[in-house]
Amino acid sequence: MRYDGPAHLITLAPTRAGKGVGTVIPNLLAAERSVLVIDPKGENARIAGEARRRFGPTHILDPFGVSDTGKVSGMPSAAYNPLDRLTPDSLDLGEDAASLTEALVMDPPGQVTEAHWNEEAKAILGGLIMFCVCHEDRDRRSLATVREYLTLPPEKLRALLELMQDSDAAGGLIARAANRFLGKADREAASVLSNAQRHTHFLDSPRIAKVLSRSDFHFSDLRHRITSVFLVLPPNRMDAYSRWLRLLVSQALQDIARDAEVSATLAAPVGAQEASQRLKASKPTLGPALFLLDEFAALGRLEAVERAMGLMAGYGLQLWPILQDMSQLRDLYGERAGTFIANAGVQQVFGVNDFETAKWLSQMIGQETTGFQTDSYKPGDNPSFSNNLTGRDLLTPDEIMQMPPDLQLLRVQGQPSALAQKLRYYADPEFKGLFVPQDQ
Fold first, then answer.
1. Gyration radius of the chain's alpha carbons
2. Which of 94, 175, 205, 400 is the most buried (most CB within 10 A)?
3. What does the pLDDT look like over 315-368, one tens digit per residue?
4. How far apart are CA 317 and CA 430, in angstroms?
């Protein structure tokens, strides 16, 4: 099954229901386009890595060696440093630093009491990131250095903040961040600092620091040549290091959107001479890059993803969140969960075993009209018959929950819902010879 429309996609299926063998890996084997895939077990990189290399450059970011990248590619894990694309003289430095803090600081859904502390943590983190970009040597510009700032002894941290107050870089935003923090009472400042330290604790891992120390590629490459990026993080480390995933997905979205804006500027009407110069400066662009976001709930609520789902289909992006059920989506995005459903041109569901998802599906699929006949008879009278029409769910919630494991429900925009066979890449002749068997 293939979808060649411009809209996003969404998959709902519980653990061990066959999302990898029937959805993720078949796309990685066959889709001749740029992809970014969250690969929790490293399985996708092991099985489809060679196939992706036939299309173009492939980067496996695997800080914990889960995908056995030495065996797959003969190379250590790739790396990406989000601070590499930030420059001291950029007018967007404040915005870029803010987007990083949004990814680093996770706002738990429904916990309003955390909002103030998280916003203040973002403010000081943004200031420290800008200071690092503007005043550190290039080999020191990394989030590991920002973490180092946050864990300085009190007297050294105060000296750093005073240096920030004297800085006129970033249009004065660095000094403002320091003023905002130093203007707080001691107890409030200590709480804000503690919160910022909590959200950046994952940076203490030498493995994470290593894959954030340099950039082997740019996410904007996904728009200009077929490029594959695997983000590998094992399930048992998701709680501790999910911010790393958030950080990279957020940066990928921003880099692609920023690159699309630059391309649009280059395409604006101008004189012949300037048009010729712009043509030389511009790079060819491909179709939309596919973001296969497995374990989507592990990212937490990420404003960049919500924004991309609703507004950025025209930026060369196609998102494919993969969740276990509807309750995960509603827990993360509340009433805004409808944005993901409304903007999904394809909805794929299988293995449903919770009533909420089954009921939602039943209502979405709709009803059919069925007829029935009633007979009545009174002694001494001729029998009478009446025909009646009534509505019946095409699939009731219990029927959806009892679907055979080899079937899936597909809702394609503008078409009736369909029951279809699930793919199994290893049993389908189309994929023969394209993948590395799991036992190798």
1. 26
2. 400
3. 788 999 999 999 899 988 888 888 898 889 999 999 998 898 899 889 888 877
4. 27
DSSP letters for 339-377: HHHHTEEEEEE-S--SHHHHHHHHHHH-EEEEEEEEEE-
Axis crossing angle, helix 143-150 with helix 115-135, rounded to the nearest 10: 120
Residue 100's nearest CA partner among 203, 20, 238, 235 is: 203
Tokens 């950080």 correspond to 247
Largest Cα span, the chain: 106
For every residue of 160-197, DSSP letters joined together read HHHHHHT---GGGHHHHHHHHHHTS-HHHHHHHHHHHH
Both tokens of 326, joined, read: 């509807």
Q: How far apart are CA 313 and CA 253, in angstroms?
A: 11
Q: Quick one: which of 247, 407, 295, 245 has its CA closest to 43?
A: 295
- For residue 295, CA distances in Å to 15, 263, 322 come to 10, 32, 6
Q: What are 412's two structure tokens?
A: 């394609």
* 52, 234, 41, 26 alpha-carbon torsion, rounded to 10°: -50
**Confidence at residue 280, expressed as pLDDT on a 0 to 100 scale:** 44
Q: From residue 163, give the alpha-carbon distance in Å to each of 19, 148, 207, 403.
A: 52, 16, 30, 64
Residue type at 265 in one-letter notation: T
Residue keyed to tokens 């930026």: 315
Question: pLDDT at position 28, please?
Answer: 94
Contact of 343 with 413, CB cutoff 8 Å: no
Q: Is 321 helix (H, G, I), strand (E, B) or coil?
A: strand
In a 3-state reduction of DSSP, which class is residue 126?
Answer: helix
Q: What are the tokens at 248?
A: 């990279």
**DSSP letters of 378-392?**
-TTS--EEEEEEEEE
Non-local (6+) Cβ contacts of 393 within 8 A are 362, 365, 366, 367
Q: Number of helices and strands (H, E) in the chain?
A: 19, 11
pTM of the model: 0.87
- Kindly state the DSSP code that residue 38 receives in the 8-state scheme: E
User: How many other C-beta atoms can be found within 10 angstroms of the C-beta atom of residue 266?
Assistant: 16
Tokens of 361: 């599906």
Tokens of 2: 């293939």
Interstrand relation of 317-323 and 289-293 (parallel, antiparallel or unpaired): parallel
Q: What is the pLDDT of residues 196-220, one digit of tens each?
A: 999 999 999 999 999 999 999 999 9
**SS3 of 440, please?**
coil
